[in-house]
Amino acid sequence: MKIIRGTSTSVVPVLPEGWTPTAGADPLGESNRLIGAPVSRQDGRTAVRGENLFAGEHRMDRMVYAAIRHSTIARGLITDLDVTAAETAHGVILVMTYRNAPRMQPTPAVFSGPTGFAGGEAPIMQDNTIHWNGEAVAVVLAETQEQADYAASLVAVTYQESAPRTFITAKAHARTPDHLFFQPVRSSVGDAETALAHARHAVDETYLTPYQNHNAIELHALTVDWTGDNVVVCDATQSVKLHAATMAHALGIDPNRIHLQSSYVGGAFGGKMVWSHSILAAAASRLAGRPVRLTLSRKGVYRLVGGRTNTEQRVAIGADSDGHFTSLIHTGFSSITPTNYVAEPFTFPARHMYATDNLLTDQRVVDIDMVANAFMRAPGEAVGTFALESAIDELAVSLGMDPIELRLRNEPDRDPSSGKPFSSRHHVEAWRRGAERFRWEPTSQPGLRRDGEWLVGTGCASATYPHQRFPGGAARLTLDRDGCATLELAASDMGMGTRTTQMMITADRMALPLEAVTVLYGDASYPGTFQAGASSQTVTIAGAVIAAHRNLVSELLALAGEGSPLSGANVDDVGALDGGLCLLANPEKWQSYASILRRAGRDHLTAVGVAATPDELSAYSIHSYGAVFCAVRVNAVTGETRVERVVGSYDCGRIINPRTAASQLRGGIIMGLGLALLEETVVDKRSGRILNPSLSDYHVPVHLDVPQIDVLWSDHPDPLAPVGARGVGEIGITGVAAAVANAVYSATGRRVRELPVTLDKLI
Ligand code: MOS
Predict the structure, then answer these.
(1) How far apart are CA 249 and CA 122, in angstroms?
(2) What is the pLDDT of residues 266-289, one digit of tens each?
(3) H or E element in which residue 551 lies
(4) Which ligand 1 atom lies nearest to the CA of residue 535?
(5) Alpha carbon distance 207, 198 (integer Å)
(6) Residue 378 CA: which ligand 1 atom is closest?
(7) Which DSSP letter does residue 175 get?
(8) Helix or strand or coil: residue 324?
(9) Does the pLDDT of residue 143 top 60, yes or no?
(10) pTM of the shown model
(11) How much is the average pLDDT of 220-243?
(12) Ligand 1 pocket: which residues have CB below 6 Å?
């Protein structure tokens, strides 16, 4: 009899001294039967058949279509509004403006408190004030989308315009934000400025990154029906619970009256949360007494959904002749609005990555008139690693040292800013494995390798992203008399394979085949608060599954009672085996789940579990690490950069599902290539208006821009993370822009310190 339970060496972790696990291993730990196997997404087949219904595809009886009229100024007042032509246009049901919109509360913004999940807190269509260029000034409902679009064009708006604040004009009034993602804004060890002034070798440079917009394949869309006291919503979101609570707050109704579903999300990357269009659609449904479908146009997404803010970063490093850092300084500015709290935390990597005698990180924000900036894949680390890892490359050049060697010489043995121990850090291994796979060779002089009119170069950079496990994780686990399990949880799956991964984890814990597990998610009425964000969801759910499973096993043992081979055992005495439980001390003593339920006369058994609080996060420094390598060719005539090859080598704890994880890492790298070479929102400085709100003018990588990408990982389980995993959603984008810019330097001898690296910066 083969024991399928968690005693294999890769499962039971070595705990740091003095640490008691709160959510980690237990005798019902995971086997490696499914975890680690490349399992295809279970919703893949229906996805390619177009059978997965997205939020804007749900049909409701008597449904009408919405169109939005956007403001053409960034700051000022509406002085006149004429809706007569729109109201009398064919098929029009309602024109909603600030004059007839229901009274609503501001939406609690992300980071305003633990549950805020809106982009910003600017009042939504409550008065004649304009807060950004593109804000909604009218919503038109009509029987068809075309009628609504046409009527929206008939709304006549007159404005009194004031000059908008821009990054350049408002920088003199920069302020210190209250916090950076709830972390202190400043970190300091020793006296970094003095140490820099006395350093034998130093770099001190400024790096710029642009504003970027979200371009998920699925446009932001929802279908909503407000009837009586209830609001039924199908919306695209990264957190059903927080989304429902935030909508309820804005609409002034009890959260239990919002019935929110978000089964399929067509990409999100940080951009699918509560934005004004969701509130407006619900309000319009209430006024019209009809269900409303609102699908933003691509342009509409640029106007109403915030993206990654621009940054101006200073990185200064002082080093001795051996390359040891005597000082590391990372400071700078990013834009924000007066109604949101997302201060892009680009200084986070410098706090955790390198040993240094003296350290200083600090940030300021500049209030400008734009749609509230928000999250975009690895907010902070994506652009912060561009500056930090470019500066390290610059220092390596001035020291005449291989850039990998320079990084390895500054590998810390505990967290440089907090002094806390690392839970698990295999960054050096990631560098070694990556360098071997890439066949890295130190370059001496830049600009010397040439192939016809192409200059050839290679570059590398560190990748990193913090581990997160959020409080509030809970799950409901039900076992039926056929021995099948159903897991219910308020999680979101935006395409990365959450459902599949949690099927694997649950099936392994229960020693069931994959097909015997159903995962129900994407509905705010299910238990638990989760966010498909901060690369946190897999482990936050795993903590909840562990808790629910332990409770379920306790109840099973109580049901089994006298006469069962398991009689007298408690949850820590048993393991899962072949669709049942056995005594750890004597696996011959076994009883199937079905038999336990049958003998107790039960159809099913349900248990709810709440994950342990994430105390590990405050006691340890828990991060993922990586090394990114790339080879580029830069055309000596046109300045065009082509990326030839990328290797990403990662240390991100245990990999649950290599197929979906590789896709996440590769997708992150591809988005990193966009950050490096293509993506840039162009804003008109006078009007605050986005000038390139379309995929024809705002460029993201297409197939021809994506080279061969190898991803590899070390697969060391993190002893402090449930199931040993640290999340893979975001680390892939980090380090990529620096690796590309460093490779461009190696090819051309030109150091580009402003993203994206476009050809005008190279000729
Ligand atoms: Mo991610 S930017 O936390 O969705």
Answers:
(1) 14
(2) 999 999 999 999 999 999 999 999
(3) helix 537-560
(4) 3
(5) 23
(6) 2
(7) B
(8) coil
(9) yes
(10) 0.95
(11) 97
(12) 238, 269-270, 375-377, 379, 533-534, 730
